[in-house]
Amino acid sequence: xxxxxxxxxxxxxxxxxxxxxxxxxxxxxxxxxxxxxxxxxxxxxxxxxxxxxxxxxxxxxxxxxxxxxxxxxxxxxxxxxxxxxxxxxxxxxxxxxxxxxxxxxxxxxxxxxxxxxxxxxxxxxxxxxxxxxxxxxxxxxxxxxxxxxxxxxxxxxxxxxxxxxxxxxxxxxxxxxxxxxxxxxxxxxxxxxxxxxxxxxxxxxxxxxxxxxxxxxxxxxxxxxxxxxxxxxxxxxxxxxxxxxxxxxxxxxxxxxxxxxxxxxxxxxxxxxxxxxxxxxxxxx
Length: 285
Known about the structure:
The protein has 285 residues and is of the alpha+beta class. It has a single domain (15-280), classed as Jelly Rolls (Sandwich), CATH 2.60.120. The protein has seven helices and twelve strands. An eight-stranded antiparallel β-sheet has the order 2-3-4-11-6-9-1-12, with helices on one face. Strands 5-10-7-8 form a four-stranded antiparallel β-sheet, with no helix packed on it. It starts with 6 loop residues before the first helix and ends in a 12-residue tail after the last strand.
């Protein structure tokens, strides 16, 4: 476990917490988390608030991109499951407090980028960059908005079912929770989303669609909770982007992809649109 965590920059401090540090899921807290995040992005803060008005309603967007794949899948699977380590939780969030790694926590390999204290402990295996350079080459080519060469990412494989939760970040109101499904031997999709405005509702979880031509997508973490089932006889590896759109160029590149993806899947069951208002989730100025 990491003992020194700079909470003042990692998360908003003016949030209500339960015993053990878990952040209470209220509109006031989601608003505070969003505002704190925006304040860490001063050069693009105004751009983000404009984008929220356009893209906030999109709950789930498959990317209009070809599949990102490894050249030798068998070699990759052997490498990942040999080098992956179970992660421990080192920062309290909206889901739970901290705890040590167990056989039931995520297996992970993580970015080597410095000065990063994520919610979960990192397992840095630098040889993944040289053993499987095609993964990162494809990501930088198809997703130039991800950031510099050493951007923040996780590769995760669940070792148990994942309970319903919002991620700690991002609480900006647009589809920014990016995933690439590098491998999945499950016969059906395991990940589901719940539209979850902070008011009484009767929504149910909906399983993510499987889009044949693409294996990358994003959802709106502010407006949804996600959960995942797990089969002991199957394996799945997700690549998770953990960085920020920190410059106007990155934002423009991402918006280009969103616009293209929304146009491609408009009117299909693969593009999910929310009928709730932003004000059902956060307090607007």
